[in-house]
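Students often ask why inverse folding is considered easier than folding. One informal answer: many sequences map to the same fold, so there is more than one right answer. In these notes we will look at a single instance of the problem. The structure comes first.
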């Protein structure tokens, strides 16, 4: 029961998602909110609550209560690293970024941190993100900027195509800079937020459970924006495409198959696919590569970052997504997550 327009603090726990826990879990969530508010001397409705971990488990209240008290006494301006470590679950490394922005109204700062490595897509899932800025800006403007930027960053990545019960993004604007943003300044803040959140989103893809590659997929030539989005998501979420990327296999047929599966009844004779600038399919058929092109493609597929362009030849709409590959470690992590 948080009043978003009055949000001043967020309390988070790791290890238990506190989802699918019924009334008992709700009692703990409210307790976390109240305990944090008491420690900080603010109203409970000014505190947001976030949880991450195993679904169906209730956070042990005695440990949570003690943890909130300990965290409150340890608050410091240099405490970011401790906070980052505390929210990690299957993450291999912490994810944080900060920017200083020269707006038309003055200099402001924006910082953020996130956790997430698995169950990522199609809507932020299993991701917690906390952003702060010292800009002076209204809750309505902040909410509008955040919604737009999240749609173009966190909602454009995929690790395994699986959603979760727990995902949230918090943005707190404290106004400490005393820089009151005009519409032009707010637009510059929005651009900075896009850079910041995209950076965090790509860090999550790179940290995908067992991931060895980050793939950028650009879909061009779609008949509509919705068609571009559907094709991009289908390819990015395809287990067959992901495992091919893991094995450094430029299997263009899997990409075209994933795209065609979401466009039933459509004929797309002019499709072409490029991987790392090498055209591997043209007019919906494989390309016979030269020795030089084959060697270049092999080098491209061995990289940590791979660029893929899929042109549908049906219109002018486009979409862009980022996804990770899928390998043995992902199976190992998720086959024994609760045991």
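Output (designed amino acids):
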């Amino acid at each position: 029961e948080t009043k978003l327009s009055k949000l001043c603090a967020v309390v988070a726990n790791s290890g238990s998602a506190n989802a699918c826990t019924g009334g008992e879990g709700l009692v703990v969530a409210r307790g976390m909110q109240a305990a944090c508010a008491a420690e900080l001397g603010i109203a409970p409705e000014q505190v947001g609550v976030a949880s991450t971990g195993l679904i169906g488990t209730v956070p042990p209240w005695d440990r949570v209560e003690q943890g909130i008290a300990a965290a409150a006494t340890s608050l410091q301006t240099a405490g970011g690293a401790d906070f980052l470590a505390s929210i990690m679950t299957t993450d291999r490394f912490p994810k944080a970024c900060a920017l200083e922005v020269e707006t038309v109204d003055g200099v402001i700062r924006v910082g953020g941190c996130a956790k997430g490595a698995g169950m990522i897509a199609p809507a932020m899932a299993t991701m917690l993100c906390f952003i702060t800025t010292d800009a002076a800006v209204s809750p309505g403007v902040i909410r509008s900027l955040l919604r737009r930027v999240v749609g173009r960053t966190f909602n454009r990545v995929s690790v395994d195509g699986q959603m979760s019960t727990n995902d949230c993004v918090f943005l707190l604007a404290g106004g400490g800079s005393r820089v009151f943003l005009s519409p032009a300044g707010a637009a510059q803040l929005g651009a900075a937020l896009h850079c910041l959140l995209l950076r965090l989103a790509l860090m999550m893809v790179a940290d995908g459970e067992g991931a060895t590659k980050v793939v950028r997929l650009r879909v061009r030539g779609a008949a509509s924006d919705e068609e571009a989005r559907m094709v991009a998501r289908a390819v990015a979420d395809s287990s067959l495409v992901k495992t091919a990327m893991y094995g450094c296999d430029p299997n263009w047929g899997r990409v075209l198959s994933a795209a065609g599966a979401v466009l039933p009844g459509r004929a797309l004779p002019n499709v072409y696919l490029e991987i790392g600038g090498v055209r591997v399919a043209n007019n919906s058929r494989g390309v016979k590569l030269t020795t030089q092109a084959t060697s270049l493609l092999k080098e491209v597929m061995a990289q940590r970052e791979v660029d893929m362009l899929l042109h549908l030849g049906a219109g002018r709409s486009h979409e862009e997504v980022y996804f990770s590959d899928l390998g043995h470690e992902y199976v190992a992590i998720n086959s024994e997550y609760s045991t």
